[in-house]
Design brief:
Structural class: mainly alpha
Number of domains: 2
Largest sheet: none
Strand content: under 5%
Number of strands: 0
Distance between the termini: 74 Å
């Protein structure tokens, strides 16, 4: 078996990231990536299997880590008793939203890739998966606090899905608009305040 040259793996990943960012997954060229990395397409197939395997090697570690971080935030909150959840929900959400935002900005190019360059891969549904997690835990919260709008059937999981989708799409616009970190913090704080005010009408609807 031929020895793999040192450094090629990392060069391929870096060149592939730039190619995917520039053209998206579907239009990216393995031949171009190989040329830029100083290797062959055969070498890429040997290391990564195919183009999606190469894309996966770039984004998957961040996807898993971010999703695990998000679930841990949710689980920690839901270990609190119902009274504490209701009292702390707004502050807890705001604080940890900034933790998530900082993680995004620590891996900014990879989130750009996930949002706008992943079409044609299984990672194209990355945002939808986050929404599903948030819907699950939001509905649980509403049941824990005895939300009358849930008991009455006025608020359903489908409705929660709609408003959570709107929130996450708004949050990730900071990446699509290429905002700097400080501007993103201001934007997401305002977005969070806006949505929390709206959520309060769902948690405690007026007759």
């Amino acid at each position: 078996m031929a020895k793999q040259k040192p450094g090629v793996y990392d060069r391929v990943l870096e060149c592939a990231k730039e190619e995917f960012l520039s053209k998206g997954f579907l239009d990216a060229s393995l031949r171009t990536i190989a040329q830029e990395a100083g290797t062959s397409t055969g070498s890429i197939y040997t290391r990564f299997g195919d183009k999606e395997g190469l894309f996966r090697a770039i984004v998957e570690p961040v996807v898993y880590e971010f999703r695990a971080m998000f679930r841990e935030i949710q689980e920690s909150f839901h270990q609190l008793d119902g009274e504490t959840q209701q009292a702390e929900m707004g502050r807890y959400t705001a604080r940890h939203q900034m933790d998530l935002l900082d993680y995004i900005y620590d891996h900014f190019d990879l989130f750009r890739l996930l949002l706008d360059g992943a079409h044609g891969t299984r990672f194209a549904c990355f945002l939808d998966e986050l929404v599903d997690i948030e819907v699950e835990y939001t509905y649980r919260y509403m049941e824990v606090i005895g939300c009358e709008s849930v008991k009455s059937g006025q608020v359903t999981e489908e409705f929660i899905h709609i408003i959570v989708t709107a929130y996450f799409n708004g949050m990730f616009e900071v990446v699509r608009h290429n905002m700097d970190r400080a501007a993103a913090h201001r934007y997401v704080k305002m977005l969070n305040d806006y949505h929390m005010a709206g959520f309060s009408t769902v948690f405690d609807p007026q007759p």
